[in-house]
Amino acid sequence: MKLNVWKPAWLDSETPGGKALVHSPEGFLVGSEGVLFDRAWLSTLDLPRAELQGIGTYDGIDIFVYELDSAVVISDTEWSPLRPLMMNAVDGHAYRMLVYAAQIATWMRHHRFCGHCGTATLGINGERARGCPACGLRQYPRISPSMIVLVTRGDDVLLARSPRFLPGVYSTLAGFVEPGETIEECVHREVSEEVGVQVRNLKYLASQSWPFPHSLMLGFHAEYEGGDIVLQPEEIEDAQWFSLRDLPQLPGPMSISRYLIDTYRAGRMGEEKPSLPR
């Protein structure tokens, strides 16, 4: 069986051939054969292309990402948001390629002009950066550290849902690190703010790149220490303790949230531990 392997790398955008993902404010372009298109075919279309980056290789083929100003209508294709594509990726390598491409495309869209003087930026040869020809400022892809934590109490887990979630889905708690804050302090603060409880015995488990829009999720397990559930209304729609034997609808298996839940359940129930997509 053929193994598809994704390797991120800087590629000269002028390199001929290869395949490309096409991204716009509406998501990724999808055709009958998936999200990868021959660049030769794309060159025959009148695309409102804003930016182009070579992002690496997939199964040994050079891969590029086109960032479009708008989601144009292209025969026999449709536009899809990133999340369903991620959750339905055929393997971990395809998942990582989509995550990486989405973050690079977002970075290209947000850094077309210098944040210091407003001049149009240019790609820097040989590295993933954009430079200002007027003042020299260089801008690199942004990464925002955040924590995600599973809070447990024996065979019960504390799960919550945001108004942004799909109907019925509950997940672990998460939040961005504030300036001057450690990741551990962030865990304690976010849990207290969002659901009003205190935790102890933090244990780091794994991390995952999360492209909404450019997060690095640092995953923890924490034990419940005290307090009653009090919701932060602008962030949390509902939060409850759930038994591992009676869990609600959970996030997809590609997410680190699901990994944290399944890992704890496996340890308590004597099941095989899951693996996080890498």
From TrEMBL:
A divalent metal cation 3 binds at residues 190, 194, 235. A divalent metal cation 1 binds at residues 174, 194, 235. InterPro entries: NAD-cap_RNA_hydrolase_NudC, NudC-like_C, NUDIX_hydrolase-like_dom_sf, NUDIX_hydrolase_CS, NUDIX_hydrolase_dom, RNA_Hydrolase_NudC, Znr_NADH_PPase. Substrate binds at residues 83, 127, 140, 208-215. Its EC number is 3.6.1.-, 3.6.1.22. Zn(2+) binds at residues 114, 117, 132, 135. A divalent metal cation 2 binds at residue 190. It is an enzyme of class 3 (hydrolase). GO terms for cellular component: cytosol. A motif (Nudix box) lies at residues 175-196. Divalent metal cations. Mg(2+) or Mn(2+). The keyword Hydrolase applies. The keyword Flavoprotein does not apply. One of its GO terms (biological process) is NAD+ catabolic process. It catalyses: NADH + H2O = reduced beta-nicotinamide D-ribonucleotide + AMP + 2 H(+); NAD(+) + H2O = beta-nicotinamide D-ribonucleotide + AMP + 2 H(+); a 5'-end NAD(+)-phospho-ribonucleoside in mRNA + H2O = a 5'-end phospho-adenosine-phospho-ribonucleoside in mRNA + beta-nicotinamide D-ribonucleotide + 2 H(+). Its cofactor is Mg(2+); Mn(2+); Zn(2+). One of its GO terms (molecular function) is zinc ion binding. Residues 141-264 form the Nudix hydrolase domain. Belongs to the Nudix hydrolase family. NudC subfamily. This is NAD-capped RNA hydrolase NudC. It comes from Pseudomonas matsuisoli.
